[in-house]
Amino acid sequence: MDKKVEIQKRSNELLKVGAKAYRQGAYVKAEKYYQQSANLGNPQAACNLGYIYAYGRTGDRNPEKAFYYFSLASISGNANASYKVGDAYYWGDFVAKKPLVAYRYYQTAEYQLSYTESDDDIKSDIYYRLALCLFKGIGTQKDLFEALSYINQAHTYSYYDRTHDKFNWQSIAKKIENLRVAIISEFDSELN
Question: Which InterPro entries match (predicted)?
């Protein structure tokens, strides 16, 4: 067997063990296996480490480590990590607020999306963020038509979140609906 294939297979095995531990709440064990998998080049493992540090699953939050692992996964093509790096720049979490950089990472996340079912659980998040930036002119020019297009896509994928019982789906669904109403209201006020 090709050495690269062996390494990828091993990194995927470690990722699965880490994911199982994470789902069971064994975050220290998950961290260990994600770290081993990430060291073998697995971008999903690096992204998962970002979540562990961003939310303090093994102790205190560590935004610096979270940003590092999200960045590492992002440059390896992980859409989930790219939107999380965008969030860091949007909110100024560990890095300075940079609206243009945030918007560009959200665009990158959209570009990196897999158009198979594997990324369906993050599409509502990414499309919402793009709509928000376009509606408010954050990092880009304000564009109501593009904002409406993205929020409608986010709205569609929020039904995927609901039907697959995505963690905290109610929160993003409410944000999507509120932004959708705001965009349509602004359109209506411009027409009157």
Answer: Mitotic_Regulator, Sel1-like, TPR-like_helical_dom_sf
